[in-house]
Amino acid sequence: MTMVDGKVCNATTGTKSTSRCYMCGATSKDFNQLDFENQINHEATEFGLSVARIHVERIHLFKSILHLAYKLPVKKYRERKTETEKYIVKERKLEIQKRFCNETGLLVDISKANFGYTNDGNTSRRFFEDPKVAFEITGISYDLIYKLEVILKTISSRYLIDPENTH
């Protein structure tokens, strides 16, 4: 099948609303639940990932990179941290937030009153658009950040990709 838009994907898969993912039927509200899992219609995967799903995956990757960067100095992710290590992580988070704000104008990982965090689609998109700055601020590998964005763009391109012939 050639490249098609979301309306064609919805019509082909019987998805009645454009606000739902044509692969699993989820809405953006469902995607925002970190523990959300839904059955995927594997026949719909030939269309590529829905824009909504790519958008959500980019946000999750962005948040994961940020949280990894905060904990990089103590080299512990989920393990129990000492009070000193907790302080180091907190200070690192503040430093990263300040640098993103000063150098890019992005407000990252800041709680909004009554409705979540500033980590939204536009923030994550801008983060991945400049992997050099993201690397310089977070200390997370430039190659990793760049390759994650390439993967997201490749998957969402809806072109048939031959993984054996990709370099």
TrEMBL record:
Taxonomy, superkingdom: Eukaryota
Organismal lineage: Eukaryota, Metazoa, Ecdysozoa, Arthropoda, Hexapoda
Name of protein: Uncharacterized protein
